[in-house]
Amino acid sequence: MSKFRYLLFLPFFLFVNLSLSWSIEKPLVLPKDKPVVSSELSLFLSSKSPDDKIKVWVFFTDKGIFDQESYQNARIRAQKHFTAKSLQRRAKVLKGDLINFLDLPVHPPYVERIKSLGAKLRHPSRWLNATSFEVSIDKLEQISLLPFVKSIKPVRTFIRKPLKEEPQPQLKPLESIDYGPSYDQLQQINVPAVHTLGYRGQGVLVCMLDTGYRKDHKAFKSAYLEGRVLAEYDFINGDTNTQNDSLDASYQHNHGTYTWSALGGEVDGVLYGPAYKANFILAKTEYVPSETRIEEDYWVAGMEWADSIGADVISSSLGYLDFDDGFSYTQEQLNGDYAVTTIAADIAASLGIVVCNAMGNSGSWTYHLDNSG
Fold first, then answer.
1. Structure pTM?
2. Any idea which fold 180-357 has?
3. Distance (Å, rounded) from C-alpha 324 to C-alpha 332?
């Protein structure tokens, strides 16, 4: 089994501080940042040509809602986009309204106005009240002057190279289930004992965020035969197929296949995942061509998609830290409150979703969870 790559959430600033209560009872209108174009983005632009195109997050001051009646009507409309399972999960952790300001969509006229300046739409985020665009540098000043634009920040992306494969131990299986060589990894966290009690993921909806998935792999045969793969979406190519297609490198779906099989695969005598009887939704959020890059806006979009369907658990094993242009975030900046990915994870957790993400397995270093004592 391939070692997982890891995720460290990149620093970014959200349009609203998470110290605010989730139950926002009135529309929010925030002032424009000074400067609107972040210092980080300005530094990045200093080495670019005005004709170059870059990917940016555009954060808005509001959602086009300025009175209580409009706000309540918008909440009613928004609720139609959430499944009953999503609302049921929220009811376990939220007091009061299950749909609030962060659930309302980005104001469409704001997006259209920026598109009219030649920007290419990538992904809107209701949680961040922001939209990512690909845009020419010479258009950024015009965008920054729009009255509803709060701030403009860069999209930063990174994924580490795969680690060298290592042989896995061949250990004897448990008598009740033939775990095969997967027994050792499960026994480390006491999974066989939990399986013996009858807990194998039944009724739990897990969302996978990864590179894509080899759906015809035998590890997933029972999940498809039993109708437990409920939805999928490719946020990179904008379609509903998360297996490789003509736009992908041949190995695009490898890592996602590893992680999904480790969590929910089922091949008797070979592999059992801890939650091999769970229900699954599959999101393809990581782009892995030869110049390996991943867009964090895909990850945030995948989180919001999972919430609307009713995911109980979100699992990903991705890494964001250093960048192709030589930029690297400092340890102080990796504080959990500054990245769009971190903020999205915080919001998901506040809605009752268990967010599971790889901490890292490349050895002991500054940004790692060090258990060496």
1. 0.77
2. Rossmann fold (3.40.50)
3. 21
